[in-house]
Amino acid sequence: MKNIKERTCVTCGKKESKDKLLRWVVFKEKIHPDWTQKFPGRSIYTHHSKFCVEGFYDSPKLAAKLLLKKIHHHISKDEVLKHIENQSFTSVKHFFYLGIKSGVLVKGQNLIEECARKQDVFKVCFTASDVAQRTLKNMINIFGERLVKTKLTKDEMGSIIDGRPLGVVAFKGSEMAEKSRFYIDVINNLRSGDIDAY
């Protein structure tokens, strides 16, 4: 089994595997987000959530943690939050594309219901924020707690796949489902500001 390295978010104090956290590093007396987690130097970590990033920027103890006399951020808090959301959207797009190509992503209410009648096992279902109430109820009946209501509109969900509005997609069991769920949760958190949306 692979050894998973855990780190602690400096804002909320929760431990998480480092690949689910945003790494920050000091370079030339400025704090930079290290998107690739490969820059050399002293580093600390935060969740990708709005609460944790904002708390990181507002922390009076940050200078001491990074052994700096004064805090200088390389980019603004709003730019970081926008970049996190854009990268998360791009990642969702990537995993949805792979899911379609490998046959583990089913799109649209009718196809999902048909697969469910055939006893296909789904890992997770994502619904758009503006999906019809009837559709939402039908999906809740099929998926229960495996249903994730996203903060993405039908137009945004459709733009991920083929450009046509789309209210519902579902993953059959795969690692792509888990990765998509992580990035959807990041987007939901950033758009709602709710720390528990993660």
Q: Distance N terminus to C terminus?
A: 26 Å
Structural class: alpha+beta
* Fraction of residues in H or I helices: 40-55%
Instruction: Report strand %.
Output: 15-25%
Rg is 19 Å
Q: Looking at the structure, what is the overall shape?
A: elongated
Give structural notes.
The chain is an alpha+beta fold and 198 residues long. The chain folds into two domains: 70 residues; 114 residues, 60s Ribosomal Protein L30, Chain: A. Helices cover 43% and strands 19% of the residues. It is built from seven helices and nine strands. The chain has a four-stranded mixed β-sheet with strand order 6-9-7-8, with helices on both faces. Strands 4-3-5 form a three-stranded antiparallel β-sheet. A hairpin with a 2-residue loop joins strand 3 and strand 4. Helix 3 packs antiparallel against helix 7.
In short:
With 198 residues, this protein is of the alpha+beta class.
